[in-house]
Amino acid sequence: MKEFQVLRSLGLASWAALRYGLEENWVSFEDVSTYAADVLAEEREDADDRAVRLAVYDFEGKEEALDLCSQLGKLNNEDTDPEKILKTWILVRLTAIEENWEDSEEKIDKIGEAYASLEYPEEMCFCSRYGTYKTDNTGQILSVRMGPPLYESRRLINELSEELAAVRNQ
């Protein structure tokens, strides 16, 4: 399952999340267009001419598409908290890996790639084969990995699913 499909299946699709995903090349213009078409079909408040432009590819390149996503997110009063959006994408990327790869070693490699592409978020450090403990800036050990990387990945998927569901239901 592609990241966009996972994002939608988790109920986490938003203009802010799509903007971040488009910026990082995790979602395509086609994914943004599909989301825009769905917004228009649902006749949501953010179904205006900017959504139409995204739905029919009436924009000049990536920068304009990113700008339109930002404008629509503001119009829809979406939460643009960078930490929440990052957590959304950590959850999406880990879930996509969990669903798309059977082999444990391949999963661990893909998790490592996701960890790097997300710029090494602290939440994922134990999901990497190399992250065995967390330290503070003095070198003091704060916590130690409890299980192998795939165990930690599943634990983080569950933790973020609960956290983001709670935020979504507020």
Q: Would you count the extended β strands for me?
A: 2
Determine the fraction of residues in helical runs and give it as a percent range: 55-70%
Strand order of the largest sheet: 1-2
Element-by-element helix/strand order: HHHHHHHEEH
In angstroms, what is the radius of gyration? 17 Å
Report how far apart the termini are: 28 Å
What is the general shape?
elongated
Briefly note the structural class of the backbone: mainly alpha
Q: Average pLDDT across residues?
A: 87
- Beta fraction of the residues? under 5%
Largest sheet: 2 strands, antiparallel
Q: Spans with pLDDT under 50 lasting ≥5 residues?
A: none
Number of helices: 8
Compute the number of structural domains: 2
User: From the structure provided, what is the oligomeric state, counting identical versus distinct chains?
Assistant: single chain
Could you explain the architecture of this structure?
This protein has helices spanning 3-9, 15-23, 29-42, 49-55, 61-75, 82-100, 104-117, 149-168; strands spanning 133-135, 141-144. With 170 residues, it is mostly helical. It folds into two domains: 3-75, no CATH class; 82-168, no CATH class. A two-stranded antiparallel ribbon has the order 1-2. Strand 1 and strand 2 (141-144) form a beta hairpin. Helix 1 (3-9) packs across helix 6, helix 2 runs antiparallel to helix 5 (61-75) and helix 6 (82-100) runs antiparallel to helix 7. The longest helix is centred in the C-terminal third of the chain and has 20 residues, at 149-168.
